[in-house]
Structures are given as structure tokens and as C-alpha cells.
Design goal:
Helix content of chain A: 25-40%
CATH architecture of the largest domain in chain A: 3-Layer(aba) Sandwich
Keywords (chain B): Cell inner membrane, Cell membrane, Membrane, Sulfate transport, Transmembrane, Transmembrane helix, Transport
Shape of chain B: flat
CATH topology of the largest domain in chain A: Rossmann fold
Largest sheet of chain A: 7 strands, antiparallel
Pfam families (chain B): BPD_transp_1
CATH architecture of chain B: Orthogonal Bundle
GO molecular function, one term (chain B): ABC-type sulfate transporter activity
Strand content of chain B: under 5%
Number of helices of chain B: 14
Structural class of chain A: alpha+beta
Oligomer: heterodimer
Mean pLDDT of chain B: 88
CATH superfamily of chain B: MetI-like
Protein name (chain B): Sulfate transport system permease protein CysW
Helix content of chain B: over 70%
CATH class of chain B: Mainly Alpha
Low-confidence stretches of chain B: none
Radius of gyration of chain A: 26 Å
Number of strands of chain B: 0
Low-confidence stretches of chain A: 373-383
Number of domains of chain A: 2
Distance between the termini of chain B: 49 Å
Number of strands of chain A: 22
Subcellular location (chain B): Cell inner membrane
CATH class of the largest domain in chain A: Alpha Beta
């Protein structure tokens, strides 16, 4: 069932939770609402479910206006952030609840309910816990019960509010994968809320990035990552190294730091955004950039070694983060306090008064430093 | 080397033992001795005397009036308390905080004052009372008046028990119920009520104890008409003023008995609530 959000806005007292916004969710898609807390994503989800009423606008399910349809009759599955299991009922009773409150005419017979509950619990792999109470379950198990309970009504729309927010990292990953396969199997339309970029990018067909009650960008994860349309989306998707500088012709300058751009820019001020993997480090500056940095911390865990760096002779609001390969780390052995130079390979330039960034690529002007071969060469060597 | 008994700060034996004996002395003289004395006095003329006193027409009437008032007060305040707790914990509206504070007025005001207020309002010379008098409705100096002040005095008990619990539990479970298609009544009976049942019983026990034992407010509006508007606590006073000490203590022993039962039920319910709260804490982890 497709969902259309049309011109929906919501205000809580003085606080404008949602600016009028419109969103189209095609049938069968898994859509993530991504944004920081207070961005209005949960409010939007609750309005789609009918748990909250919007001040303006309409909600359409499959082309039909459901704005004034009560939650009870919208027949959506809703999974709450803190599971909201009925604490005085067993797991099986929780899952059966939706079927048991059906009007007599629609309600399946008791053995039929029993059978359906057993099937649902098998599907979420919790058949052996049917007689337990929610307080006797782990977080991941509770979340699966909550899902089974929502799916008992065979909803065509499944809404999930921070479904994995309260779980630890490993369980979260398992459940994420499991939800994805469930979605692919049952073909309902799902919308989930999250503040975790990784989760949104991994799980969704389409990501809706929200901030301050507005939709910033709606795109597939790949598009979103490669072509962020605004500064906010850029900032929100992972760490960014920023050079805030004055423009002099084709040169960005701030204190001791400067970068030569491939072409001249006309605005007086600009910001250069560099993703951690679009920069490399070496011990001498190159012809097109001089970005001196001091190593603050070295983190060895993960696929690459992550260095936290402090600008040397210039300013940045947040320390820089740049990843180097383990091979480069072993050859170089960088230490806290060492000095080095960042060399941008790809950059994204935000010019004053323009929302969309311009992506820049520097032709390989690299000076081959024996200690700092190009990373691609190293990767080839490692693999 | 000599081993020393390890003492923590404030752990001197003489402090401990003098505090324990002081506590025992106070509990003994102020609570236990009077309680025992009531029953000793009540059976002063033997079991036969106790039975004679209790089957006295006026005493029987006082007992039945007290039971009637309690039996009507409990359902009224039960419904009112649940309604009020639901209102202030599930809805946002201007004046909500003020309403929560106002619930406590009957606790803050002396029952005698409450009785006097009702007398002024509903008495034959009162604003509403004189009009009611014209309609041939008499509230004061009859059992409806007693019921009214009892309801007033006991109305916070149920709501006071429910509000903190319902605030703690939040409305997520009810929202979950409604998304699953439950109607308002199904939601209340299957989700809300099971979650609040022990707090509700606790509130009812307290309401009952107070409704049966209330003296001040009732004495102002009852008029002390023997066999008509005399409740059990008023009856005790009346008998005592008649120099019928054994009779007075017999009725008092009934009230004391109710108190003991209340205490027993109360501690049982508290134990159940503590157990439920432990489960709640585990859930919120």
C-alpha cells in the first residue's frame, strides 16, 4: 500500500515540530526517516499512524484519504521504541491481543487464533518463549515480540519508531538484517525512524533526511551519500573535515593553511568539506595544498587506522579525522604529536549563498614520497 | 594481638539499644496498650455482655448506616478516582497541574471545616439548601448529608494512589492497544485496569477505612439523631456520654477490628505492589 503525505504540518505550543511537508512512499518500499532528535521524524511517523493529528494537510493510503480515520481503523502495524509490550500478558497473549479484540463477526475462532500466534512466534523464532512474560525477555526478544504482535493483524503498512535504538550493537545488526529479509518476504510498506546514519543507509530503499521539521533530501542511500544536496545532509552523514577559508582567486586561505582550487571562484568566503577517505596524509606539503596537522590520537580498531588531527597554525571547529591503511601505518608508525600534511583528492566546496556543494577533483599532482605511496597502490599490495 | 569488634560510625551498642527500647516504649504505651484496652473493656461484662451491647437496636442501626455510607462512598470514589487519574495522566490541558493540587484539598482541610461548609451550603438556611428545602429535599441531618461529606473527605485516596503509578507507566501500552484495534472499553479492561489493579485496591482499602471511621465532618452534618443519623464513630461518643462505658467500647472494638483488617489487607497489597514495581523496573531497564 502506497503512502502519501500531503502538506502535513504540526505545532506543539510554541514549537513548530513539522513545517508543511509532502512525501510519497511507493508500495512495498522500506523507507528510513533519518534525522537528529527534534527533527520531527517521530512526529511524522505518529501522524502517519494516526496517533497524532496534523494541524494541516492530508494522509493518503493507496490514494484514499485517511486523515480522519481513527488509529484503530487505519490497520497499520506500529512498533514502539520501548516495545510497549503488555507487561501483564505472556508473549503469546501479547501477540494474540489484536486478534482477540476484533469484533465477534471478524474474530477467528480460539483454535485458529492459537494457530496463528504459534506461526507468528515461529516466524520471529520465539516459539519456545510463548509462556514467558515480557519482563523475562532480553531487549532483542522483546523487539521481536513487538514485531510479531504488530504483524498479527497482517497490516499492509508497518511503522517502526527507533526500532533498534535501545539494543546493543551486535543484536541491532542481527535484527536489522532480519527485518530486511522479513520485509522482502512479506512485501508490506515500511517506514522506520532512526538517528543512526549507518542503519538508515544499510536498511532502506530510500532515506528521508529531516532537520528542524523539514525534509532535507529524499534519495536512495547511494545517491544520498554521493550527492548530498545540502550542508546539513553532508554534516549528518559521517565525519567531515572542514576548512573554513577566505577566497583569493582560485586559492582558499586561512592562517597557515591554503588549498589551490582547480578553478577560480568568485565568492569571498567558502568552506571546503573533505570526507575522511577523500584525503590522504604525507610528511611534506604538495603543490596544490598546504594543510599542516598535528596527530592528536591514533585509533587502530577497524578496517583502517583512524587518526585524529589538530590544525597547526590555523583553525577548525572540530578536529580532523583521516583514515590510513594498516600497511601505511606499519610503514610510517605515526605517533601522538607528530606533524603531517593533509592532501585533498576529492573535495566538496560550499560557496556563500549556495546550498548545493560543488564537487572538486584534483588531478594527480602527488609527489611520490617513499614513505607515503598512494593509498590505492597500497591496497593493491595488501590484497 | 587482640581482635577488636569492628564498629562503624553510629554503631555504638548503647545508642542502638536505647533507641530500640525508646521505640518499644512509645509503641507500647501509645499503640498497643490502648488497642488491647479497647478489647478488654469491650468484654468487661463477658461475652454475653458484648453480644447484648452489639445487638442493641441503636447499635445495629449505627452499624448498618456506617456500612451503607461506606458501600456507597467506595464505588463513587472509585469511579471518580479512576476518571480523575486518567484525565490528569493521559491528557494535556491548561490547569492540569492546578487540578492535581486541588485533589489534595480534603487532606489539607480539617474535616470539621468541611462539614461546616456543607452545612452552610446545603443546610435549611444555606444558599442551595433553602432552594432544596422548597423542593422538599433535605440533605443535612439525614444520611445523604453524611454520604456527601464522607465522599468529600475520602475522594483523594484512589486518585492519589493511581496518579503516580499511571504517570510512571506512561501511555505507550494504551497506544499499542489502540493501534491493534482495541476499543476504549477493551483498552481499559484489558490493558489499563490490570496494570493499576493493586494501586486501585490499595486506594479502596484506605477509602473504606476512612469512610467508616470519619468523625469530624460527619458529626457536624449528622445531627446525632439516635437510630437515624448515628454512624458507628458517633455512636461510640454518644454511648460514652451516657456513661455506658462497656457499650461504647463494644462499638469501638468493632472500629478497631476494621482497622486491624485494613492494616492486614494494606500490607498484603503493599507487598504485591512492591513485587509489581520490581517487575516494572526490570522492564524499564
Amino acid at each position: 500500500m502506497s503512502i502519501r503525505v500531503e502538506n502535513i504540518s504540526k505545532r506543539f505550543g510554541q514549537f513548530q515540530a513539522l513545517q508543511p511537508l509532502t512525501l510519497e512512499i511507493p508500495d512495498g518500499e522500506l523507507v528510513g526517516l533519518l534525522g537528529p532528535s527534534g527533527s520531527g521524524k517521530t512526529t511524522l511517523l505518529r501522524i502517519i499512524a494516526g496517533l497524532e493529528t496534523a494541524d494541516t494537510g492530508r494522509i493518503l493510503f493507496h490514494g484514499q484519504d485517511v486523515t480522519n480515520v481513527h488509529v484503530r481503523d487505519r490497520r497499520v502495524g506500529f512498533v514502539f521504541q520501548h516495545y510497549a509490550l503488555f507487561r501483564h500478558m505472556t508473549v503469546a497473549q501479547n501477540v494474540a491481543f489484536g486478534l482477540e479484540v476484533l469484533p465477534k463477526a471478524e474474530r477467528p475462532s480460539a483454535p485458529e487464533i492459537h494457530k496463528r500466534v504459534a506461526n507468528l512466534l515461529d516466524m520471529v523464532q520465539l516459539g519456545h518463549l510463548a509462556k514467558r512474560f515480557p519482563s523475562q525477555l532480553s531487549g532483542g526478544q522483546k523487539q521481536r515480540v513487538a514485531l510479531a504482535r504488530a504483524l498479527a493483524m497482517q497490516p499492509q503498512v508497518l511503522l517502526l519508531d527507533e526500532p533498534f535504538g535501545a539494543l546493543d550493537a551486535k543484536v541491532r545488526k542481527d535484527l536489522r538484517r532480519w527485518l530486511r529479509s522479513l520485509h522482502d518476504e512479506l512485501h508490506f510498506t515500511s517506514v522506520f525512524v532512526t538517528h543512526d546514519q549507518e542503519e538508515a543507509l544499510e536498511l532502506s530503499d530510500k532515506v528521508v533526511v529531516m532537520s528542524a521539521g523539514k525534509i532535507e533530501q529524499v534519495d536512495s542511500p547511494q545517491e544520498l551519500y554521493s550527492r548530498p544536496e545540502s550542508r546539513f545532509v553532508f554534516d549528518f552523514l559521517g565525519h567531515i573535515n572542514v576548512l573554513d577559508a577566505q577566497v583569493k582567486g582560485s586559492r582558499l586561505q586561512q592562517g597557515a593553511a591554503w588549498v589551490e582550487l582547480p578553478k577560480a571562484v568568485t565568492v569571498p568566503m567558502a568552506q571546503l568539506y573533505l570526507r575522511p577517505h577523500e584525503v590522504h596524509l604525507q610528511q611534506t606539503p604538495v603543490a596544490h595544498a598546504n594543510l599542516p596537522l598535528t596527530i592528536n590520537a591514533v585509533s587502530l580498531i577497524g578496517a583502517e587506522v583512524r587518526l585524529e588531527l589538530q590544525p597547526d597554525g590555523w583553525q577548525a571547529d572540530e578536529p580532523w579525522e583521516i583514515g590510513i591503511s594498516h600497511a601505511q601505518y606499519n610503514a610510517w608508525q605515526p605517533m601522538r604529536g607528530d606533524r603531517c600534511y593533509a592532501v585533498p583528492d576529492i573535495g566538496h566546496l560550499f560557496m556563500q549563498g549556495v546550498t548545493e556543494p560543488e564537487t572538486l577533483t584534483w588531478a594527480s599532482t602527488l609527489i611520490q614520497d617513499p614513505n607515503f605511496p598512494k593509498r590505492s597502490a597500497h591496497l593493491a599490495e595488501v590484497s | 594481638m587482640q581482635t577488636r569488634a569492628s564498629l562503624r560510625v553510629g554503631d555504638q551498642p548503647w545508642v542502638k539499644w536505647s533507641l530500640i527500647s525508646l521505640a518499644l516504649f512509645i509503641v507500647g504505651t501509645l499503640l498497643i496498650v490502648p488497642l488491647v484496652a479497647i478489647f478488654v473493656q469491650a468484654f468487661g461484662d463477658g461475652v454475653q455482655g458484648f453480644l447484648t451491647n452489639i445487638t442493641d437496636t441503636y447499635t445495629l442501626h449505627a452499624i448498618s448506616l456506617t456500612l451503607l455510607v461506606a458501600a456507597l462512598t467506595i464505588p463513587l470514589n472509585l469511579v471518580f478516582g479512576v476518571f480523575l487519574a486518567w484525565l490528569v495522566t493521559r491528557f494535556e490541558f491548561p490547569g492540569r497541574k492546578l487540578l492535581i493540587t486541588l485533589i489534595d484539598i480534603p487532606f489539607a482541610v480539617s474535616p470539621v471545616v468541611a462539614g461546616l461548609l456543607y452545612l452552610l451550603l446545603y443546610g435549611s438556611n444555606g444558599w442551595l439548601g433553602s432552594w432544596l428545602m422548597d423542593q422538599d429535599v433535605q440533605l443535612m441531618f439525614s444520611w445523604p448529608g453524611i454520604l456527601m461529606v464522607t465522599v468529600f473527605v475520602t475522594c483523594p485516596f484512589v486518585a492519589r494512589e493511581l496518579i503516580p503509578l499511571m504517570q510512571q507507566q506512561g501511555k505507550e501500552e494504551e497506544e499499542a492497544g489502540v493501534t491493534l484495534g482495541a476499543s476504549g472499553w477493551q483498552l481499559f479492561r484489558r490493558v489499563t485496569l490490570p496494570n493499576i489493579q493493586w494501586a486501585l485496591i490499595y486506594g479502596v482499602v484506605l477509602t473504606n477505612a476512612r469512610a467508616m471511621g470519619e468523625f469530624g465532618a460527619v458529626s457536624v452534618v449528622s445531627g446525632n439523631i439516635r437510630g437515624e443519623t448515628n454512624t458507628l464513630p458517633l455512636h461510640v461518643e454518644l454511648l460514652y456520654q451516657d456513661y455506658n462505658a462497656v457499650g461504647a467500647f463494644t462499638s469501638a472494638s468493632l472500629l478497631a477490628g476494621i482497622a486491624l483488617i485494613t492494616l492486614f489487607v494494606k500490607s498484603f497489597v503493599e507487598w504485591r505492589q512492591a513485587r509489581q514495581r520490581r517487575v516494572l523496573d526490570e522492564v524499564s531497564e
